[in-house]
Amino acid sequence: MALSDRKIQILQAIINDYIETAEPVGSRTIAKKDNLGISSATIRNEMSDLEEMGLILQPHASSGRIPSDMGYRLYVDHLMQQKELKPEEKKYLQSVVARDINQIDYLMDILLRFIRVGEHMLMAMVLKEVIYRNALKRECHK
């Protein structure tokens, strides 16, 4: 079964709406919202084909459809339109990445300190156990 332009439009409509709402998307929603110029019955038929192709799923018998992993992959690889970031968006993302990298360094430093303290605590627990067992042995041999 071929992926026609109409099927692609319906798949895009399902994925876009699902991304916005996190709810299964019905044929009536697509017919009203996306102005594809086709009836909800035609959309249902195309959705059935998309489901057979493995691009969408119907989580419940009476619900709308959601994208499958394969449908998302097709969308990301071929259908999604790349948007150019505004300068302020780029600057914000760069600051977030820099902050997160610094945060990771900070967390690693804390983790290493904890491990060092933990090693000392573990050593102390082992020594305590050894001393306790030696004391028991001495008591038993008296």
Structure write-up:
The chain is mainly α and 142 residues long. The protein is 73% helix and 3% strand. The chain has helices at 5-21, 27-33, 40-52, 69-79, 87-141; strands at 56-57, 66-67. A hairpin with an 8-residue loop joins β1 and β2. The relative contact order is 0.09. The mean pLDDT is 82.
How confident overall, as mean pLDDT? 82
Q: Bin the strand percentage.
A: under 5%
User: What integer value in Å does the Rg equal?
Assistant: 30 Å
Distance between the termini: 88 Å
Characterize the biggest β-sheet.
2 strands, antiparallel
Low-confidence stretches: none
Helix/sheet category = mainly alpha
Strand order of the largest sheet: 1-2
Number of helices: 5
Overall shape: elongated
Helix-strand topology string? HHHEEHH
Number of E-state strands: 2
Helix-residue proportion: over 70%
Descriptive tags:
142 residues; mainly alpha; 5 helices; 2 strands; 73% helix; elongated
